[in-house]
Amino acid sequence: MPVNTELATKTYYRYAWVRDAGHSDFVKKAELCERFFRGMQWDEKDLALLKAQRRPALVINKILSTISNVMGDQIYNRSEVSFQPRSGAPSGNADVLTKLFKYISQDNQLDWLRSDVFADGIITSRGFYDVRMDFNDNLMGDVRTTRLNPKNVLIDPDATEYDPDTWNDVLTTKWLTADEIAVLYNEDDADYLRNRAGSYFPYGYDSIDYMRDRFGDRNASRSFYTGVVDESSVQRSVRVIERQHRKLDKQRHFYDMATGDLRAIPDNWTRDRIAAVRDMYRLEVVTKLVNRIRWTVTADTVVLHDDWSPYKHFTVVPFFPYLRNAQTVGLVENLLGPQELLNKVSSQELHVVNTTANSGWKVKTGALRNMSIEELEQRGAETGLVMELDDPKSVEKIQPNQVPSGLDRLTYKAEEHIKTISGVSDYQTGNAREDVSAKAVAMNTSRGSFNLAKVTDSLNRTDHMLARNALDLVQQFYTDPRVINVVKDRMTGETETIEINAPAPTQEKPDALLNDLTLGEYDVVVTSTPVRETLEDSQFQQALSLRELGIAIPDSTLLENSRLLHKSDIIAQMKAAQESPEALAKRELEKTAAELEVANLKAEAAKIEADAMLKQAKADKENQATAKAMQGGDDNLEMAKAQFEMQAARERHQLEMEKLRAELEFTRQQNEMKLQQMQREGMIKVAQKQAESFMQEEPVEEE
To answer: Nearest Cα to 263, choosing from 99, 87, 142, 462?
Structure first.
């Protein structure tokens, strides 16, 4: 684009206003926190003064170990993003979106990127993603996520909320080479800006530019190559200001009369395309006044880009560990005081120890014969020092000051302050006392994670906004047919092919598409899960415990969650062996044997029950005969005796029947347990044989 001094000046002055309205203070705080994290914890003036006085300046960097523990907890607890259908969305598309987001995460190495943004947040109190479309590797476009330096992101000073959708504008500043400008924008502007040694603006190179982070010297931006040597292709000497701000504009929308949903129509759509979509989905087209995003990019007086943003959201996605009334707070800034106290008290302790060894001398004039006063000053603390004196009382050692009582307690208090303020206790760092029980250590460790619950919740909120923005980009730009290969099983390397927007005509809908992700709305669900290796260990122990309890856990599940090498090959061989003719024949034989065993058990049980029924019938017959014999007598005593004997015999028979039933039930349960044990032993033997055969097939390296 041509030189536009008016628009460039307007953009720069907005940048300067936002910078002076609070961003400069944040940069100073962030620089101080990063210096303390790196171990540069003494002011240069204080360091020079202590050096002149020959006093120590110790740095005992407790901040690094404390923050590293928090980073480790984040690394071993990843987040999983999934989508759920909400309004007008096919249920199957939600699963496709979940798999597509995993593909995008792997393509952008989001796990490592997430750790970098998290580190920026807890150290400087702000971390930022940048989510936009990239057309370098794919002409249809890919969702590209990068990390932004928080010092180069300027937030709307009037903003108060966490979500950028409530901000009016956001600015980012970066340094580019002339060749990068030629690739990203156009070559004419790059040639105009090439080798420019000055700036149109009086404060074009402000303090923020001097503090930009790089591998080289931070003051390198103050010097520029001049003369016949052209380094504009490798030296990033052109500062670019990128502003995304909201502006009122009338825009056409698709309107669904059934649900009331509105969807903005891209500016580059033709009337025929709009009409086709309107007729296909029975929509109406309305014009509405909205706050659209205007995207302006300038470099000095050159306007590199100025147009409506193609995105629904700002490309910037923030992470704030703590946000209170528009003030961001990290974990390092509140540790600066205790860390300074620890350094100063420890340095003072060392200074006292040094003065004890070399406290000084009182020397009478002319008393030294073999050395001068200057030599005594330099060598006065040496072991085995020999002084030749006229009078032994002419030289006297100055008594050193005693170590102040309680100085060591200040060091202990400083360390405890760091633990208390950060919320990272000895239990979380693995430095708990040895006399504490394992159960108490586990409880205190899990309880300590509650101190960082707000930080974790803020990170999940950022993940939600990141997935939301990626979803909008997918629905807006992933409109052409695509084929994506997603890793289905990381262990075995199995992949799954997903077709998006593929033609799938039917009689009812001849223009229907398979996995049309532009349809409907979806909810984003973010869950925290342990990292894969830790999760595998936990799953293996749980599966093994269930196997020991008698639950038939498949062998493939145990192998999948184990740490064995070549376990994918072992599982593949197990599956092949299970489907072989020999394995099928063996399973048929085992099944036949089990069926015969069950038949034998049923026959034995039937025999026992028949014997019991026969005994019961004999007893009833005897009782009936006794009753008939007693009917003809007149003696009441004999009748009572016979009735008593009949009742006793009946009770004995009932006891025998109950005993037989109990024995039968016990025998049946034992037989079932034997069958289950035989099945488990058979499966284990098959797995052992397959593992042994696999190990035997591995080639042996020659020495």
So the answer is: 87
Looking at the DSSP bridge assignments, the partners of residue 291 are 248
DSSP letter assigned to residue 20:
I
Place of tokens 């909120």: 461
Q: Scan for tokens 């936990």, then name that residue.
A: 538
| DSSP 8-state class, residue 365 | T
What whole-number distance in Å separates Cα of residue 242 and Cα of residue 12?
10
At 318, give phi and psi (nearest 5°). -90, 160
Q: What is the DSSP letter of 265?
A: P
Q: What is the mean pLDDT of residues 211-233?
A: 56
| CB 307, CB 206: distance < 8 Å | no
Which residues, listed in sequence order, are joined to residue 629 by a DSSP beta bridge?
none
Angle between helices 62-75 and 24-38 (to 10 degrees): 100
Q: What is the CA radius of gyration of the chain?
A: 41
Class of residue 662 by CB neighbours under 10 A (exposed 0-12, middle 13-18, buried 19+): exposed
Contacts with 658 (C-beta within 8 Å, 6 or more apart), sequence order: none
pLDDT band at 166 (very low <50, low <70, confident <90, very high): very high
Q: What is this structure's pTM?
A: 0.72
Task: Look at residue 329 and tell me whether its pLDDT is greater than 90.
Answer: yes
Please state, in angstroms and rounded to a whole number, the distance separating the CA atoms of residues 483 and 495. Answer: 12
Which of helix, strand or coil describes residue 593? helix
Tell me the C-alpha distance between 131 and 115, whole Å: 16
Specify whether the CB–CB gap between 523 and 86 falls below 8 A. Answer: yes
* Residue whose entry in the numeric block shows the structure tokens 């199957």: 92
Contact 253, 287 (CB under 8 A): yes
Give the distance from CA 189 to its chain's centroid.
41
| Residue boundaries of the structural domains of the chain | 5-53+85-321, 578-697
DSSP letters, 131-188, are EEEE-SS-TT-EEEEEEE-GGGEEE-TT--SSSGGG-SEEEEEEEE-HHHHHHHT-HH
Query: Which tens digit of pLDDT belongs to each residue from 386-443?
Result: 777 777 777 777 676 666 777 778 888 888 888 888 888 777 777 777 667 777 767 7
DSSP-derived pairing of the beta strands 502-503 and 513-514: antiparallel
Q: How far apart are alpha carbons 23 and 31 in whole angstroms?
A: 12
Q: What is the dihedral of CA 317, 320, 323, 327, to 10 degrees?
A: -90
**Residue 407, SS3?**
helix
Structure-token pair, residue 176: 């580019």
Strands (E), 68-141: 77-87, 127-134
Quote the CA–CA distance of 640 and 646 in Å, as a whole number. 10
**Tokens linked to 164:** 């950028």
Strands (E), 167-278: 169-176, 238-255, 262-264
Q: What confidence tens digit (pLDDT) does each residue in 554-589 have?
A: 877 777 777 666 677 777 777 777 777 777 777 777
Distances (CA, A) of 682 to 396, 545, 587, 692: 92, 19, 10, 15
